[in-house]
Design brief:
The complex is a heterodimer.
Chain A lengths: L1 H21 L5 H4 L6 E11 L5 E8 L5 E9 L1 H6 L12 E8 L6 E9 L5 E2 L33 E6 L26 H4 L4 H12 L25 E6 L4 E6 L6 E5 L18 E7 L2 E7 L19 E10 L2 E9 L8 E11 L10 H5 L4
Parallel strand pairs in A: 3-5, 10-11
Antiparallel strand pairs in A: 1-2, 1-4, 2-3, 4-5, 5-6, 7-15, 8-9, 9-10, 11-12, 12-13, 13-14, 14-15
Chain B lengths: L7 H19 L10 E10 L2 E11 L4 E5 L6 E8 L4 E9 L5 E11 L7 E8 L2 E9 L1
Antiparallel strand pairs in B: 1-2, 1-8, 2-3, 3-4, 4-5, 5-6, 6-7, 7-8
The chains are: A alpha+beta, B mainly beta.
């Protein structure tokens, strides 16, 4: 019986650690201190080639001879593999010198900006910086009935990849300096981002000042709203005209999907819907543009990078236009009268990744393997 | 023999699960309007003399509404908030223990804005009695 209790206790502790670890996955802006630098030299003790951040662990000896184990994050495996790196690029027992940004807080953790293998002097995990191959412009593929296909041409593979912008701001033409997580260079620019109600502006500024530390997405909550179009690792449309729906398969987050009904049903009524992360979507074609109305969002997520708030009253109208094979224009109108003083519109373009498929990615993968140590 | 009771392990496991959920839920963040939701806590003039209170607040885009102690003895309340300093005033007309009408005014400050379990604490005036209160969002 005692042994059973111990096993349950171990199980319980494991669950608690996993829960804590999920809470520990933060975006670079909130996890690492870009105002400080750290240099570490030590022996690699473990390599975790996992999403969303690959880590190796090094035993670092300080001036007193004490050894401490550091976790070093060095990139996303999907990106690393595209640049030709493999888990075997570094081995347990190798001595490496790491330069990088230390974690905020007391954790012995760093984000590597440089990794050098001591025995050869080779720099590891450097981006190839190969320019993207130029793809000849081709017309957008079409279905037999003339509608633009949002997925691959018949018999081909491909998916929608990197967006031209990772933040959503009102399309006013104003220049608003911010990083790719949506953190403003100047908090005074908040009014240029969107027409906030006073409470929403206050919440937005709080989230900005705290470097988005409370972002549910960093705890692997689903990227609802427009967030899945800002996230890395792409998405794919699976059009099923015969049953009147389009599935949107999301490569980031936790490989969720979203359903857009195109069978002519009316838009859902907010009062009767079960509120969800992706809401209830209905779509219709306006010429070559798919227009999607979505309501029924819950409030358990941040609907865009940068911490813009929303309420259950959020109504998104998205317009997807494919002017050629390689380009998807995404425009979204945000209508949430409880949060914003008027509807507002923003958008970006997204590039087609030909002849490839979305790779496996699970946000939660780090939870088990990286932080329990 | 108590330790051989097979029910003890499931009970322990439930405890684990609740503890796990506690940790997981604590990871959730502030959502929607910061005052929206159900708030539980107490007020009183002394630490050993407290009265439980529940306030349900909702934001309709123009104002925050409140229901004090939902149920048979519930009363509507009015809420004003300064969204810069996140100070909150709640006013309501309740009934005291003898059933007599009593006016309540509570002035508090919203703390830990980014947390799911954010709090409001401050001064609670009920009739001629003044005390402290603390509410935590469920």
């Amino acid at each position: 019986m005692k042994r059973a209790k111990v096993e349950w206790l171990a199980s319980c502790l494991g669950m608690l650690l996993i829960a804590a670890a999920v809470s520990a996955q933060l975006a670079p802006s909130s996890a690492y201190d870009s105002d400080r630098k750290v240099k570490l030299t030590g022996v690699v003790t473990r390599i975790d080639w996992v999403n969303p951040g690959a880590f190796f662990f090094v035993n670092v000896k300080d001036s007193s001879g004490t050894i401490a184990n550091w976790a070093v994050e060095f990139g996303n495996p999907l990106d690393l593999e595209k640049d030709g790196w493999k888990p075997s690029s570094v081995h347990i027992g190798d001595t490496v010198t790491v330069e990088g940004l230390p974690a905020r807080g007391p954790a012995r953790q760093a984000l590597a900006t440089s990794v050098v293998l001591a025995r050869t002097g080779a720099k590891l995990f450097v981006a190839s910086n190969k320019p993207a191959a130029k793809v000849a412009s081709q017309p957008a593929p079409r279905w037999p009935d003339g509608h633009v296909r949002l997925g691959p041409p018949p018999g081909k593979k491909g998916y929608w990849g990197t967006p031209s912008a990772t933040v959503l701001v009102e399309n006013t033409g104003a220049t608003i300096p911010m990083n790719r997580d949506g953190i403003l260079a100047n908090i005074e620019d908040a009014d240029k981002v969107a027409p906030f109600q006073p409470w929403a502006k206050s919440v937005y500024e709080y989230r900005q000042r705290t470097l988005l530390k409370d972002d549910p997405y960093n705890r692997c909550m689903p990227p609802g709203g427009v967030r899945h179009f800002q996230s890395p690792y792409g998405f794919q449309f699976v059009e099923q005209p015969e049953i009147g729906r389009i599935l949107l398969l999301i490569g980031g987050g936790d490989r969720n999907w979203r359903t857009i009904y195109t069978d002519g049903r009316p838009m859902g009524q907010k009062d009767t819907l079960v509120l969800t992360y992706y809401g209830s979507s209905t779509g219709r074609w306006d010429g070559d543009t798919l227009v999607v109305d979505t309501v029924g969002f819950n409030e358990k997520f941040w609907f865009t990078n940068g911490g813009l708030p929303h309420t259950e009253a959020l109504h998104l109208t998205e317009r997807f236009t494919r002017p050629d094979l390689n380009t998807l224009r995404y425009q979204v109108t945000v209508d949430d009268p409880r949060t914003y003083t008027r509807p507002w519109t923003g958008g970006w373009t997204i590039r087609w990744v030909p002849d490839e498929e979305i790779q496996e990615f699970f946000c939660e993968e780090n939870a088990e393997s990286t932080f329990i140590r | 023999m108590a330790s051989s009771n097979p029910m003890r392990i499931p009970a322990f496991h439930v405890g684990c699960l609740l503890a796990y959920m506690g940790v997981a839920v604590s990871g959730f963040a502030q959502q929607g309007h910061p005052l929206t939701g159900t708030w539980n806590g107490d007020w009183g003039a002394a630490p050993d003399h407290r009265s439980q209170i529940t306030i349900v607040m909702a934001w309709d885009g123009k104002q925050v509404s409140a229901v004090i102690n939902p149920g048979p003895d519930s009363a509507p309340g009015s809420v004003s908030v300064d969204v810069v300093g996140w100070t909150v005033r709640i006013a309501a007309d309740l009934k005291d223990q003898s059933g007599k009408p009593v006016h309540v005014e509570a002035d508090g400050k919203l703390e830990d804005l980014g947390s799911y379990h954010r709090t409001i604490s401050g001064t609670w005036r009920q009739g001629t009695t003044t005390g402290s209160f603390k509410l935590t969002r469920e």
